[in-house]
């Protein structure tokens, strides 16, 4: 498990990628992805609206009885690796503050501390990754809509099944009017 090299700075909004109909029939159909890193070398994000049927403790026995949380599918890359998303810092190395009320870590010790503290958390297995320039090219093709938000309410206050609709609504877009393909000038 690795932590992104470019942490979010305070005051920088969260970026969510919202799948368009172009992705119908793929793993990313209806996906909402929290973008953790995006620079000239590529991008990394976590699907945040795909809960699995597995309990987090089934996948990470070190959690013991300190769970009850389901595991989430974060993407197809390194599905054996996990990320923890949680609302309050636990004061350990490896924590990445994304915005007020949202931290991320791929460190097992942090995950266990979060669980012991009784915090809500998302154990997200795997991630979505893009090579250099790939995400920008996909956005130009109309594959992703970019939604920026100042806080993590979409994760903590909106049920997973409603996150895609809420993210689209934040843009003021009628999902029924979205079509596959991108705009070309």
From TrEMBL:
Annotated organism of origin: Deinococcus lacus
UniProt similarity note: Belongs to the UPF0301 (AlgH) family.
Name of this chain's protein: YqgE/AlgH family protein
């Amino acid at each position: 498990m690795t932590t992104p090299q470019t942490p979010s700075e305070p005051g920088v909004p969260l970026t969510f990628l919202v799948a368009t109909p172009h992705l119908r029939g793929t793993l990313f159909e209806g996906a909402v992805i929290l973008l953790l890193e995006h620079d000239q070398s590529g991008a990394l994000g976590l699907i945040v609206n795909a809960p699995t049927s597995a309990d987090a403790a089934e996948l990470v026995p070190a959690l013991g009885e300190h769970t009850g949380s389901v595991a989430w599918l974060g993407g197809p890359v390194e599905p054996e690796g996990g990320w923890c998303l949680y609302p309050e810092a636990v004061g350990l190395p490896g924590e990445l503050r994304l915005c007020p009320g949202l931290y991320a870590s791929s460190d097992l010790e942090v995950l266990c501390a979060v669980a012991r503290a009784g915090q809500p958390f998302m154990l997200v297995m795997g991630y979505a990754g893009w090579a250099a320039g790939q995400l920008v090219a996909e956005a130009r093709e109309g594959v992703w809509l970019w939604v920026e938000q100042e806080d993590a309410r979409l994760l903590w206050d909106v049920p997973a099944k409603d996150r895609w609709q809420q993210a689209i609504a934040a843009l003021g877009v009628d999902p029924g009017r979205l079509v596959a393909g991108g705009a070309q000038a």
